[in-house]
UniProtKB/TrEMBL annotation:
Cofactor: binding comment: Binds 1 zinc ion.
Transmembrane segments: none
Domain Peptidase M3A/M3B catalytic, first and last residues per copy: 172-554
Protein species of origin: Solibacillus kalamii
Designated name of the protein: Peptidase M3
Pfam families per the UniProt record, alphabetical: Peptidase_M3
Keywords: Hydrolase, Metal-binding, Metalloprotease, Protease, Zinc
Family: Belongs to the peptidase M3 family.
SUPFAM superfamilies for the chain: Metalloproteases ('zincins'), catalytic domain
Cofactor(s) listed in the protein's UniProt record: Zn(2+)
């Protein structure tokens, strides 16, 4: 899948260059007279349809840019969206939220249907400040700059210039010398772009701090908890950090001894802390990856594979690595089309296999939602829910890795590595969350202090069993490679919370596969206006990150891994 241009995978029902036309549509909404609860409900529906048209066009332009950050026309369109359309949307969104919330019929809206939307709008009204609009636009410009920096990053490998994801994939190589070579090259690449990314992050921290101050908050962390409408507290997050450190990290250290034994090494070094027990990448060509994942999905549920086949046929996938392509992977909804698009920039590796399965979990969730409830609106989207179905899909397919790894020992190694990934999802994103708590509650920190804090937290969690001697500095700067820190602040801990739910789903799957899949589909198509806890309950699991659940799921996961090893 090497296309870099739009092939009509999204609909442009509105011309985003027609500023006057867009303003006229918003002004008509503002001029509508709302004389009854029925009028208000119709007004909300009309507003939603306009927003969906704009959102689909914006999303299509964003995906086009991520697919080719070096195309000047694509970049120009994307920057026009960020610099002109987004400020316009922020201004009118504030006016529309005021109109809705100030309506005498606002409190008469059915709580079961509109409750989440009401809370979302009220928090938007609380946070909005005119003076933040240029700051938010600047924030997006900095995020775009990061995509360009990372999209243009290449590394020389055996005399050839290779895209950065290729070098990252070599961390999975069975040859320890190759892994170490790749590790050093990656860190050298980070060092090359460090001055630019340090300056970028310094500016982002100050910018975001000012946004929070303008909105009446002490810091950006507190601001984001309101912006995200979180259904748990800051203190709950700190408790979760501690529970994982207390119960998951000791188990992680025990498992490290198992992996050291499998590797035949006495010292666990940074380049050993990857999926390196698999002899070869699971595929060489993207078509083979898609065929194999389609079969894995089909053996789990026919609907799952049907969605992948549909996406292949309609140009809704862009996988594989190339120069100029932005890093990472994601799945985005197209609310007018009712489709989803999956983007990924990975070379052949075990992780790229998992990444596609993960994103297909999001896609299936999106399609089930669209067919049962209609497209997911902005206020309905919560990462704690979305990531349950991406992690859940990974674990539901755990028993089908033999389609890529037919040899028994390789099959076990693949399962072991996926469960190892589940472990890392319990503490990796969580440590990233703790890092962001520190960054934004200490906004005057220096670049050196930031690196030192990142190393300290990394050593407490994922690198706890690893001998990092001599690599403290390079580990400290490796936050550079985590795009969430730049582009999606405070979107991290949700991965860890949702993994606890996904492990509960795996527990059910081991007892009754068909029932677990039905629970998955029921939850993935549930009414998103419910609380997070209610949607988890429909999926047959609990939204619970208390100490007892962390301890129980950690013990379950460790046992499953050890059972595979035996």
């Amino acid at each position: 899948m090497s296309q870099t241009k739009s092939i009509n995978y999204y609909k442009e029902l509105i011309d985003l260059k027609d500023i006057e036309g867009i303003e006229a549509q918003f002004q008509r909404l503002l001029d509508v007279s709302i004389e009854s609860i029925h009028d208000l409900e119709n007004w909300i529906e009309d507003e939603k349809n306009i927003r969906f048209e704009i959102e689909e066009a914006l999303t299509g332009h964003l995906v086009d840019f991520y697919r080719n950050t070096e195309d000047p026309h694509i970049k120009s369109t994307y920057l026009q969206d960020q610099q002109v359309i987004q400020p316009l949307l922020m201004t009118y969104e504030a006016k529309l939220n005021d109109k809705c919330c100030e309506s005498p019929y606002f409190n008469e809206l059915d709580e079961n249907h509109y409750g989440l939307m009401k809370r979302f709008r009220e928090s938007k009204v609380k946070l909005f400040r005119n003076e933040n609009i240029p700051l938010l636009v600047k924030e997006q410009e900095l995020c775009t700059k990061y995509s360009e920096i990372m999209g243009g990053l290449t590394v020389e490998w055996d005399g050839e210039e290779k895209p950065f994801p290729f070098i990252e994939s070599q961390l999975d190589n069975l040859d320890r010398n190759v892994r170490e070579k790749a590790y050093h090259l990656i860190r050298a690449a980070y060092r090359q772009i460090k001055p630019d990314t340090d300056a970028l992050m310094d500016e982002l921290v100050q910018l975001r701090h000012q946004i929070a101050i303008n909105a009446g908050f002490e810091n950006y962390r507190d601001y984001m908890f309101v912006a995200k409408n979180r259904e748990y507290s800051i203190e709950d997050c700190y408790d979760f950090h501690e529970n994982v450190e207390k119960h998951i990290i000791p188990a992680w250290n025990r498992l490290a001894d198992v992996f050291k034994s499998k590797l035949g090494v006495e010292t666990y070094r940074p380049w050993d802390n990857t999926a390196k027990l698999l002899k070869n990448p699971p595929y060489a060509e993207t078509s083979v990856l898609l065929d194999g994942v389609a079969e894995m999905l089909g053996k789990t549920d026919p609907y799952f594979s049907d969605r992948l086949q549909y996406m292949r046929e309609h140009g809704l996938l862009d996988l594989g690595d190339r120069k100029g392509k932005s890093p990472g992977g994601f799945c985005v909804p197209l609310p007018v089309s009712g489709d989803t698009f999956v983007f990924a920039n990975f070379s052949p590796s075990f992780f790229s296999l998992i990444a596609l399965i993960h994103e297909m979990g999001h896609a299936v969730n999106g399609y089930l939602q669209a067919s049962e409830q209609g497209p997911i609106e902005e206020f309905q989207w919560r990462a704690e829910i979305a990531e349950l179905y991406s992690h859940g899909m990974e674990l539901l397919l755990l028993d089908k890795f033999n389609l890529f790894y037919p040899e028994e020992e390789e099959f076990k190694s693949a399962q072991r590595e996926e469960l190892r990934r589940a472990f890392t999802m319990l503490f990796g994103p969580l440590s990233g969350d703790l890092f962001q708590h520190w960054m934004y509650t200490n906004p005057q920190h220096t670049a050196q202090e930031r690196d030192e804090k990142f190393y300290e937290i990394s050593k407490r969690y994922g690198l706890n069993p690893v001998d990092t001697t001599g690599f403290e500095e390079v580990i400290g700067m490796s936050w550079i490679g985590t795009l969430h820190f730049i582009q999606y602040p405070f979107y991290d801990i949700e991965y860890s919370m949702s993994m606890l739910g996904a492990l509960q789903l795996l527990e059910k799957y081991q007892q009754n596969p068909q029932q677990a899949v039905e629970f998955y589909k029921k939850g993935a198509s549930a009414d998103y206006n419910q609380s997070i806890a209610a949607i988890y309950k429909e999926t047959g699991v609990d939204f619970d990150f208390s100490e007892s659940t962390v301890k129980r799921m950690g013990e379950f996961l460790e046992k499953v891994i050890l059972d595979i090893n035996s």
